[in-house]
Amino acid sequence: MTLNTMLSYQVTEWGTPLQQVLGRKPEPAANEVLVRVRACGVCHSDVHIREGSYDMGGGKSIELGRIGIHLPLTLGHEIVGTVAAVGEGAKAEVGQPVVVYPWIGCGQCRHCVAGEELDCETPRSLGTRRAGGYADYVLVPHERYVLPYDGIDPLVAASAACSGLTAYAALRKLPAATADDTVVLLGAGGLGLAALGLIRHLTLARVVVVDANPAKLELARAQADAALDIRDADSQARLRELAGGGALAVIDFVGLPETFEWGLAALRKGGALIVVGLFGGGTALSIPLLPMRNLRVQGSYVGSLDEFRELLELLRRQPVATVPIEQRPMAEINDIFEDIRQGRVAGRVMAIAG
Ligand SMILES: [Zn+2]
Ligand SMILES: [Zn+2]
Fold this sequence. Notes:
By secondary structure, the protein is α/β, with parallel strands linked by helices. The chain has two domains: 5-162 and 303-352, Quinone Oxidoreductase, Chain A, domain 1 (Alpha-Beta Complex), CATH 3.90.180.10; 174-299, 3-Layer(aba) Sandwich (Rossmann fold), CATH 3.40.50. The chain has ten helices and 18 strands. The strands form four sheets. Strands 3, 7, 8, 9, 10, 17 and 18 form a seven-stranded mixed beta sheet that branches. The protein has a six-stranded parallel beta sheet with strand order 13-12-11-14-15-16, with helices on both faces. It is globular. The model has no long low-confidence stretch (mean pLDDT 94). The structure holds zinc ion (ZN) (2 copies).
């Protein structure tokens, strides 16, 4: 690698392994910040994105190429590193350790101006729309998206940008609760466990974890008030017993028809189902059920820049149980993807830049 070049790992054709590409190192202009990548977390969604489509249920799917995601694309959105160079207008200090907020909007539309970038219709998120963190360097459009993470382990800060933030933003949508209420975390994978580590800081409610994997349930049981196997025929009855009726809220970190239906059935009147998981599929919903039981069904996608700041502050202040983190060289990125696809990864893998 010479001074003006960098390595990156790109999707060049949907559904095929990432290609190592030697390209030009970007030069930041205006408010842009160039970050030297130290590590980038590998997310299940990277594996989905590489495939090039999402199952929307009912035999429908979305081709990513048709919603403005174009190739070649450097994936990777849980980025931690140091400021390497700044544009002439950017207020960031070269050499400063930073974590990158990747969920960036166009910056121009009314949503972006109001600070609701997640609702931007033309996002330029790093690692899903623009070049991301599986590279030596990543170009960040504005200094406001690079944040200091002093007092936090660098790899924990990196994972906060997606799995941590997704869990946190979903928890922030929980209705106000007392110790008599019950919240269900459906799915004890990376996201569910991240939520479990944070939830006691955000609600007084009783916490029940539901999954279909005995090993994951065992891991979750230590921190939850109860853990239930969704495959048990009496899992709904047991939840009702634990909750003294139904749950105030269910957060579905899986997003399969089975989990969505289980979650909706578990709610008490006035309850909320918050859907986070993107596994895909569709379901038939009884429409009168929503008004008759006064239910709320809501989606939650990653989290806002403000929520990211709040989460970093929380991680700085409080000891938070985090998911196990495994470090592997970025050059092994395709093997890491395969391990995730095969369900062989418990917790988070951090790809360490060379
Ligand atoms: Zn992610
Ligand atoms: Zn916008």
